[in-house]
């Protein structure tokens, strides 16, 4: 990861309440050098493509919801799979979803860059502890 102390996190979820709850959960914990939030996957994918050679502007970790209007999480993963090898740095994706479909859970094993699948409640708790389980360099 680009920072030896802590990774950067980008949360993609169309639920602003989830963003607020996660912000409150992370308050007081210095586990991420920065946390950004997006209600939509499209601008994030556009930013990643545009800044693919600028490691400092790319997140280290993405929390991705699967159920969103427009570009949903499943389609984001398919498109990310096409571009991820052209990125200046590796980005780990964690699926955070309320879906109980086995097919959705299997997505965490379908892509090397997807490091896990968590339901939204577990994802809130996991967010505080995740950086200690992600390698700091590639």
TrEMBL record:
Q: Does the keyword Chloroplast apply?
A: no
Q: Which residues cross the membrane?
A: none
Q: Where are the 4-aspartylphosphate modifications?
A: 65
Q: Which Pfam families match?
A: Response_reg (PF00072)
Cleaved signal peptide residues: none
Spell out the InterPro entries in the cross-references.
Answer: CheY-like_superfamily, Sig_transdc_resp-reg_receiver
Pinpoint the Response regulatory domain residues: 8-135
What keywords are assigned to this protein? Phosphoprotein
| Name by which UniProt lists this protein | Response regulatory domain-containing protein
